[in-house]
Amino acid sequence: MGWVILSDTVYLAMGLGALGAAVVPRLVFKRPLSMPMVFLAAGAVVAALPWPVPTVDPVRDRLWIEHGSELCVIVSLMGAGLALNRPFGRRAWGGPWRLLGISLPLTIAGTGLIAVLLLDWPPALALLLAAVLAPTDPVLAAEVRVGEPTDAEDDEDEVRFTLTAEAGLNDGLAFPFVLAALALAAAAGDGWSTGWLGRWLLIDVLVKIAVGVAVGIVAGRLLGRMFFRAQANALRLSEHMEGFVALGATFLAYGAAELLHGYGFLAVFVTACTIRAAERSHGYHRVLHEFTEQIERLLTVVLLFLLGGFLVADGLRTLTWQGAL
Predict the structure, then answer these.
(1) pTM of the full predicted structure?
(2) What percentage of the chain reaches a pLDDT higher than 90?
(3) Both ends of the chain: CA-CA distance in Å?
């Protein structure tokens, strides 16, 4: 009987969450709040109530949490790439390049240094923390991203464009630092050495970034040609206006890049930008973008609600004042 009640409660929570995902963004519009903040707080409040509410554990439930999180991110990356109106270029994308080439490495260095000095963490763990925290997140930053695709190339606010483009590309620079932290930890276990450095620069930095970009360009061009220029009407999907095709493009690019040992997040964003460039003013981009935005919003609601519950149930138990600072 208890399981039945719990199952019914989950259905009720899912229904309220789905409705809230549609209502909350409009309620907090132009207020110093965001939808992720609201649902994070909601999860914390529900977990604090004297009810038998199920909670997640990042260790026990690692597999589905990992895949659920990456699903939310890659869907968001596809939507962000499709929304960018500005053509790719060295000068036109000067803002994102500065954030990626200057701000991101400085943020990693600064955060790692603070973790060593304030928390007395070993360098490998400090570098891992810094690499995880440094990238901006396209999922949680929906309120400061560019809007839906438009016909105009130069109507984007410069700050919104810069943040969106940087969020789509920064995993290609943050992932190598995550792998560097793991290599540094392994080297420290065997005695300090720099033998891992050459392989890290060649494989984790150059090769994996190149594979991610190449997969994104190839997949984007093939899909763009199919969507807009295929001879067969059944393959020319832009005429059918079906938004779920965006998920197919997302999974295709991500899966191909990961199988080839490249950075899948980077491949998805490049694929989206390349599809957009194939026929920049076509209305099908708006259909694809709207679908990905809706899926992203639902996934965000679920993940942030569960995260809020975990923080109250167990996540903050070992937090020290140094860690909070």
Answers:
(1) 0.88
(2) 24
(3) 45
